[in-house]
Amino acid sequence: MPSSGHRLRDVEHHPLLAENDNYDSSSSSSSEADVADRVWFIRDGCGMICAVMTWLLVVYADFVVTFVMLLPSKDFWYSVVNGVLFNCLAVLALSSHLRTMLTDPGAVPKGNATKEHVESLQLKPGEVIYKCPKCCCIKPERAHHCSICKRCIRKMDHHCPWVNNCVGEKNQRFFVLFTMYIALSSVHALILCGLQFISCVRGQWTECSDFSPPVTVILLILLCLEGLLFFTFTAVMFGTQIHSICNDETEIERLKSEKPTWERRLRWEGMRSVFGGPPSLLWMNPFVGFRLGRPQTRPRKGGPEFSV
């Protein structure tokens, strides 16, 4: 039985490709192991600008924390402990951002809705499959088409311009880690800003920074605003993602009020399915499973992504 009306309409009004269709599926004939070895990247102008802005804002925060607040401090261990902690959070946040941006979110191979491929599936009589009319692929259950990635994404939650990618089945854990580490680093920066303001007021703004008092005030105020905005956004997104994982329901499914036809993995089972394995510190590590992508020189057609 079809799981939702829009998929049924896709089948009714857009039948599977026949042998004489002109769609070129040769560029999508790679195996899933071959795809896993390549780096995924979306060439979207807005997304690339947002991703660069994210990195620049984190670098700015690190600059203010390190050179405005910590290095001028006379308390050596205060500077060392907070410097190491903040920079570790920043590195983990940016690493999670990269993994989210450069990981295939679960894209369905394009152009596989051919008659030959359907026959090779050996479907049972009366069994229904769905075809996406936009990327001409056989659409798995819970997959949705992204108009920016130009692909159907398994368990697509949403497309986030700040990571220039969809959040889906294969990169959701990295997006959760990104929001968590940005929220933690924002809280840390706000606490340091508060302590710095108190220190500067008590010292009459004479020795609290290597910069002039007006410049110091401007830099600290901008960092406070950035920290408040980043913390609010990422904390809300982190809570939303954890709620979705624990209820085994993506944001798109929630907004469309789709009735689940799949067996839900609730709470810890859902967390294990996203982060992998039993609860451990490895869940917090964005470097788990990292490997360099294999160079790919064959041109890809019909999509905004490329592989390297």
TrEMBL record:
It catalyses: L-cysteinyl-[protein] + hexadecanoyl-CoA = S-hexadecanoyl-L-cysteinyl-[protein] + CoA. Pfam families: DHHC. One of its GO terms (molecular function) is protein-cysteine S-palmitoyltransferase activity. Residues 131-257 form the Palmitoyltransferase DHHC domain. It comes from the Eukaryota. GO terms for cellular component: Golgi apparatus; membrane; nucleoplasm. GO terms for biological process: androgen receptor signaling pathway; glucose import in response to insulin stimulus; negative regulation of catabolic process; polarized epithelial cell differentiation; positive regulation of D-glucose transmembrane transport; positive regulation of epithelial to mesenchymal transition; progesterone receptor signaling pathway; protein localization to plasma membrane. The chain crosses the membrane at residues 48-70, 76-94, 174-198, 218-238. Its EC number is 2.3.1.225. It is found in: Membrane. It is a multi-pass membrane protein. The keyword Transferase applies. It is an enzyme of class 2 (transferase). Keywords: Acyltransferase, Membrane, Transferase, Transmembrane, Transmembrane helix. Belongs to the DHHC palmitoyltransferase family. The DHHC domain is required for palmitoyltransferase activity. This is Palmitoyltransferase. The lineage of its organism: Eukaryota, Metazoa, Chordata, Craniata, Vertebrata. The gene is ZDHHC7.
